[in-house]
Amino acid sequence: MKKLSDKQSVKEVIAQMTVEEKAKALTGESMFSGMGMEKYGIPAVRFLDGGTGINYFQLYLECFVRNHDMSVDGGAGLFDITSEAQVVPMLLELDENEEAAKKAEEKLQKEVAFMKEKMKAYIPDGVLPGCFPPGILFGATWDRENIYEAGKALGKECGFYGIDVLLGSPNVNIHRDPLGGRVFEGYSEDPCLTAKLAPSFVKGVQSEGVIANVKHFAANNQETDRRTVNEMIPERALYEIYFPGFKACVQEGGCKTVMSSYNAINGTYSAMNGWLLTEVLRDEWGFEGFVVSDWGGAYDQPKAYEAGNDYDMPGPRSVDTVVQAVENGELDEAVLDRALTRYLNLVLEMPIVVGRKNTEMDYDYSQKAAYNAAKEGIVLLKNENGTLPLNKEEKVCFIGEKSKRFIESGGGSANVRTDRSTSMVSCAEQIAGAGNVSFGKIEDGADAVVVTVGVIGQEGFDRADMELEAKDKKLLEETLAQAKAAGKKTIVILNVCGPVDMNSFIDNADAVLCVFIPGMEGGRVTADILYGNINPSGKLPITFPQKYEDGPTYGNFPGRDQEVWYGEGIFVGYRYYDQRDVAPLFPFGHGLSYTQFEIGNIKTNTDKIEANDASGVVEVSVTVKNTGKMAGKEVVQLYVAHKDPTLPKPPKELKDFQKVCLEPGEAKIITFAITNKELQSYDSGMKKWITEPGVYELQIGNSSRGIKAVAEIEATGYNPYGVNEKTTLGQLVIIPGALEKLMEFCPDTGITKESIELSILFASTGELGDYWKRIIEPLLDGMNAQQKEDRYKEMLKVMNQFH
Questions:
Q1: Most buried of 74, 566, 595, 762 (most Cβ within 10 A)?
Q2: Rounded distance between C-alpha atoms, residue 476 and residue 219, angstroms
Q3: Quick one: which of 135, 122, 149 has its CA closest to 205?
């Protein structure tokens, strides 16, 4: 019996297997383990969430799923404990009954203590994992290096917990609507920012030998009806908005697994979508790993394998339909061989086969990575009259339970329970002294009041509105009014999963600091920012609108009757606000600093680029100077705007950025390279990316509404939207000046503008190329065949300028 040993053995192992064995080998054995087959040397691979830290509840469930009574004090069964424990954090944030919330917290702590004790048989000392920031805060860092370090730290922890495939590392679904339940997991509303950052996380995870997994492919942008919703999405929007993050993780990041999504795209569920999983993912992008279904998402197993969904999770699950499909000739056995080859080739690279790089918990590495990520991503939204940073001698009152412990992770598969949390209040006491810090109420002698409010994000549920939690909103409004009346400085900490409506309190807040969901080090980082130990440098990865009704998806989210139309097309986020000239509360890319920066002196090395030459490069540079009195970081953002496009385009699109650290008075030159790729748009009619000749603005600033310097370049060359040999005479006649220019190429032929216009009455669909060859060319007396062909080519080149 040949066993799996190397890539050469894969084919031999598969050849020995029955159809049923092949199908079972491609189906999970349990909730988070792949099917192990000892006789073939195939190990049971361990899958687990997630991108914010190890989901301890999933680990607990997996370790004990086959055991007998694993209940707390012999009470409820294992599944009841685990599922309830995952929901309790959400209930704690939503329940306005303090007594009920207290009891829920007590029960949860009892369950956590119970799990830690039981897990000692599997994990030394029942160690709890670290909790890292989610995608939205990573997006706010605009910082590849620290995202890489966070991925690496998480990869190290995976080694300790014996995980082979880390699910959702990362989640790159776009922030289509601020109410999306999993907005906090994704990086941004912008495909460029997502595509520039997310591959770093993949590289960090895989640097530790763990297999990364990018999810959910594709367009998993809502939780309402998430398993059944049919999303009608224009092809151009898919290519320009919803695909780039995945493509970058595959091509640049080298991500080895992809998770298909639950939803249908244009009528076909993702796990059964051959166009998505084979034509796009493999044929166009060159993906060579395996695709795993979202849990229970392979609704039709044979069709899923046929489409390119290689692995079906979770298990156990019957494979009878697969076996029958092969026996009936509905599914080629070679499809199973193909999927199994992809899977086994990657199994050979997994820690369970090659060994684990890390078997010890590196607490310091995780702590540092979580701290630095939060440090780079927390965003200062407002800071009137230098309210922040606080002076260590000031008396500061902290209000709201979340001031003691933030919402550190979202709900669902991204939920992480850790015992390494930091408290903003405790850290503030360490910085300023206990005598200068109080909690719970506004003291008479206080100089400043800090109020923390929040909204948790939750897998399985979209938000109902952009409001804060009811109890938090009431607390915030009352506290701010009281503090303002007493002449205190007011600071609001937004511990939120996404944008919130600030209309009821923004005017009474002197400073607003958005920490999003910051992970275990959020409390420490926020205290350091409040007191100026850190200069904030985060920038918004998502627009904060004045009100929800201003947004691009208002009235079209989350759809109706399990169907939603992406009517906004490519105009997502700031693209829509710019197009409609709607002023947001805080624009995409916005974020303040304790210092000031100037951006100017824009220069380019050339003002021309060939539209159809991928090797052409324009270098554009600006000078950035710290004009303030404190060292700080600025994110220099490059946007491109096509001045007169044929294909409708947003007023501007982010194409690149750099985060730069400057000492007071220091200046640096920042240079960006522009190729024709940065000027492209996807034309769904032509089924390809197009760089249209024309004038483009290179806009550089510090937010989508903070453009500081502008330069123009011209893309030259063949215009696919210009007049060409396929242009009909009917189209030609309505283009100003086109017929007159054509006449210049056929003098002394008797052909006139009027005669062409007359011919249109009989053949308006006739094409220019055919008309030239059939009517004009025979009348070009005195020219040989080569001269006529040269005239034809020159005519097309000149006429192409018209569109």
A1: 566
A2: 35
A3: 149
Any idea how long the chain is?
803
Confirm if 205 and 559 have CB atoms less than 8 A apart. Answer: no
**pLDDT of 89-148, one tens digit each?**
433 333 445 676 567 667 666 766 666 666 665 565 668 899 999 999 999 999 999 999
Nearest to 679 by CA among 709, 706, 705, 643: 643
Decide: 596 and 628 in contact? Cβ < 8 Å: yes
Q: How many CA atoms lie within 13 A of 377 on its CB side?
A: 35
Task: Give the closest residue to 167 by CA, choosing from 352, 271, 272, 32.
Answer: 32
Which whole-number Å values give the CA distances from 611 to 92, 134, 165, 328, 427, in the listed order?
A: 56, 38, 42, 52, 55
Q: Residue 109 has which token pair?
A: 């702590």
Q: Provide the 10 A C-beta neighbour count for residue 593.
A: 21
Mark out the alpha helices in 410-509 (DSSP H runs).
424-432, 470-485
Tell me how far apart the alpha carbons of residues 99 and 104 are, in angstroms, rounded to a whole number.
9
d(CA 305, CA 168): 21
- The catalytic position among 177, 294, 578, 656 is 294
Contact 527, 431 (CB under 8 A): yes
DSSP 538: -
What is the spatial distance between Cα 146 and Cα 153, in angstroms, rounded to a whole number? Answer: 10
What stretch of H or E contains 604?
strand 597-604
Note the pTM of the prediction, 2 decimals.
0.93
pLDDT digits (tens, 9 = 90+) for 411-442: 999 999 899 999 999 999 999 999 999 999 99
Any catalytic annotation for residue 462?
Answer: no
